């Protein structure tokens, strides 16, 4: 009697539905999110060194205090004086002017140098390391250095009258502002270059490979791939430039001291003059608060009109 084997019935594993699971994760496993305790140290630090001083400045702006005698509240007298102060209004315009010029000069330089430094050649790495040296120096040291180099009597301008005219770059408003823009760019462009270098290296190489197959050259790839991919980095860099440009103080103090006259008196420097030279700390606090409000508004406008607030990341955080 012969028997025939019954056919085997294989059990197929259920095919997961699209989106039901994620590679590298167990199905049904929950992602642990950090609690509020993770943010506690940063929140405490920000509160103590940013929020509390800002509140104290806001309160002091409604008072009169010379730093020695008792504080006396004067209501809105400081604010009334503020909007009728010619030097104050001029300082706001100068601060905005130097900030805009700084952004216009530093942004294209930072992008071009950052994209160039993103290459893998050894000479680029060496030159980039040398170029980033100003990041290691303080603003005070850099300002002293350039003050000596541009001295009208013993510096470079005194030896090149054919280029610098009378050699007194600090004696005219236009040239003094030019010096401030140049020194600021020399110091801070390497920082923004470093940001663009990292962002450029994060661009997927497959985009450039596809563009090369389609016959696009390096210039076309730069305008069609690199710049669009650096959009979020541009917004971040520009906000840092705006905030930094509107709060720069030590460079003005050492290079021009607000001169000639008050032609380079920016708002941060004017606040210092009123507070630590004229001992009007209440009025200086009002000036500082105006500066904070203006810088915040400009940053929010950049974020709004650039579409940065609507951008979403493709990567998940913790």
From TrEMBL:
Residues 16-30 have a biased composition (Low complexity). It is found in: Cell membrane. Coiled coil: none annotated. Residues 88-302 form the ABC transmembrane type-1 domain. Residues 1-30 are annotated as: Disordered. It is a multi-pass membrane protein. Its main location: membrane. InterPro entries: ABC_transporter_permease, MetI-like, MetI-like_sf. It comes from the Bacteria. The chain crosses the membrane at residues 35-63, 92-117, 129-149, 169-188, 238-259, 279-303. Keywords: Cell membrane, Membrane, Transmembrane, Transmembrane helix, Transport. Belongs to the binding-protein-dependent transport system permease family. This is Sugar ABC transporter permease. It comes from Actinacidiphila epipremni.
